[in-house]
Request: fold
Amino acid sequence: MFVKIKTCISSKFLPYSLVSLCLYLCVVISASFLSTESLAENNKASCWISQPDLNFGTVSTAGGRSNTSVKVTCNHYGHTKTVNLTMCLYIPEGNPSLANNRRRISSNTGSGNASSYLSYDLFYDPALTQRIDTTANPSSLRCVNQTLSPSENQKDTFIMLYGSIYPGQNVLATRYTSFNMPLTLLSNSSEDKVLSAQDVIAQNKTATNNLLVTANYENSCYLQSVPDLNFGQTDNLLQEKISSTTISLSCPINTTWKVSLDNGLNFDGTSKRMRKGTDYIAYALYRDASLSQIWDAKSIAQDVGNNGTQQIKIYGKIPIQSKTIPAGDYLDTVTVTLTY
Reply:
């Protein structure tokens, strides 16, 4: 095409109007050629990614978290200005497929046994607020920017991925794994500007590798919450003070569990005590609202797990104090032990 244009311009015997037409075509086609060349110049970078592993280790009904880094290597040659690299990661559905819009890993080891699934998700950030989508969606895609100076032809960038296994799952106690998680990198480069996610998606330059996700699941019990027992404020310890709190726990079905409390940090051999400096306030813990079943270090609450939340109510009483107590904040720490 370029040779033909030169021939058109160099003709000395064409009518003026035709020469003008040829010159007009020359300008338009030449401009088109330069635009294509400029685009190619901005797209010389090549990027590829490592094969990362996301291992949650041992998890239970409490769930679990883990993270891993993806190594992205990009090269670019022949540039005389700083090159702006833009790299965007997303992770398609893979195998096992999604269920209830959650990613899953499987217990199936290939032996033909029916699979059990453990649900989890992947995120761009450690706060687990930016979920990684299964498609290159401009509204959810997060990108990382890097630069190559004129003296640099290659650079490594590490992109963090964060995983979270949802709590409250009661599944087969075994190892879980993904089979095909096509970690996908979209990338592009420019010497003129920092590219947006939309720019990178439009170019559609991809590199892929497999993300291996694994976890070992144990059917175990755990304490969901142990709130403080707070007697509040008072200016009169010539009256009893009553308060309560609730321990929440979870255990797999048919698992026998036991909960015990120690006597706290300030036990004097007779009474539990809250302390402020050298001053103390005596108190006691009970298993019932009528305050007839005292809870000491030998007391045990027990039941059988049901896969859900089970609760234990603890009641506290400050008896009438026989002496004047200095004002201030009085504290004690009682250890709760869950055995199963």
The CA atoms of residues 39 and 173 lie 54 Å apart. The chain has two domains: 46-217, 222-339. The chain has a mean pLDDT of 85.
